[in-house]
Specification:
The strands form two sheets. This protein has a five-stranded mixed beta sheet. The chain is 48% helix and 10% strand. Helix 13 packs across helix 14. The radius of gyration is 19 Å and the shape is globular. The protein is α/β, with parallel strands linked by helices.
Length: 308
């Protein structure tokens, strides 16, 4: 079995919070692999480390892990725009260079959540789509699934900095797009979301925020924080030592962190291309096939957002 050993701190956290039992892990992994092999519609990764991420994300409930794995690959099929870009596409590196989505290298302490910064105002909505930016973020998160025990065991947090966001960005946040983002980010991924912190909120924010909030489960709703320009309030939740210099922190600069991820993506480039082969074939699914409409609703079924 090729599962990376956890540090003592994370091993104890996984035992207490995730019900992890190292003695049971091999049989749990074999159970999931046997189940995948019997699903005619499902082409899924069966690497030990990958499957362990889903088991940890589901607190070692085998049934929940199977449901999440199936859902994860279903959204790849039914929302392909959210996964379309890979590093071989020049647009991928262009988006990465913008720093619109960054995962920070440091955590506040052993056992603390992994932090990402999302800055949609960094991309031009006349030239790029939100789905393209999310494709890049989904690729980086795949790398975390494979190698970041802090994120997998302790969960993740996000800063959503809306500085520079325009009406063009808001118009890309259609109800259908929000539903896709919710299913992918809340339901299909194995990460536990520990908090979302909003900065520099522009006019029109409340409309989108309330529409998005209505789609979230109660646990995540309770972990949303709107700080706007009050960085001191954010520092009570996220210490400066994990933040880049651009946010008053000491954990490097945007440029350095972007460089780290460009190198990491190059290291994983072949793996990321190969990973695109995994998805569902809904024509082979026993019972009713999943479609974009059944998973996210037809766009016309949503009330259109109105901006003042």
């Amino acid at each position: 079995m090729s599962v990376r050993p956890l540090t003592p701190v994370l091993a104890e956290k996984a035992r207490l919070e995730l019900n992890e039992d190292p003695k049971r892990l091999p049989s749990d992994l074999q159970h999931i692999r046997d189940w995948i092999a019997k699903q005619p519609h499902l082409k899924a990764r069966t690497d030990d480390q990958w499957l362990t991420t889903f088991l940890r994300g589901c607190k070692f409930s085998l049934e929940r892990a199977k449901e999440k794995i199936d859902l994860y690959y279903s959204v790849r099929t039914t929302a392909p725009d959210m996964f379309a870009l890979t590093p071989k596409n020049p647009r991928f590196m262009e988006i990465l260079d913008l720093g619109a989505f960054l995962i920070l290298p440091k955590t506040a302490s052993p056992g603390s959540p992994k932090l990402s910064i999302v800055r949609p105002g960094r991309y031009n909505p006349d030239k790029m789509t939100l789905s393209e930016v999310l494709s890049v973020s989904n690729c980086l998160e795949k790398i975390l699934y494979m190698e970041d025990d802090d994120a997998v065991v302790s969960g993740v947090m996000a800063i959503i900095d809306l500085e520079g966001v325009t009406m063009g960005h808001f118009l890309q946040m259609t109800p259908l797009q929000m539903k896709k983002m919710t299913v992918v980010g809340q339901d299909a991924t194995p990460f536990r979301m520990k908090g979302v912190h909003y900065l520099n909120t522009p006019p029109g924010f409340e409309t989108v925020f309330n529409a998005m909030k209505a789609l979230l489960n109660e646990k995540i709703k309770s972990r949303l924080y709107v700080h706007n320009k009050n960085y001191e309030a954010m520092y009570k939740h996220i210490p400066k030592e994990v933040l880049p210099a651009e946010y008053g922190g000491t954990a490097g600069t945007d440029k350095e962190i972007i460089g780290y991820w460009k190198n990491k993506v190059q290291e994983y480039s072949h793996w990321l291309e190969e990973d695109m082969l995994y998805r569902t074939d809904e024509a082979k699914r026993p019972g009713k096939a999943k479609t974009s409409e059944s998973m996210f609703g037809a766009e016309g079924s949503f009330r259109q957002l109105q901006f003042d």
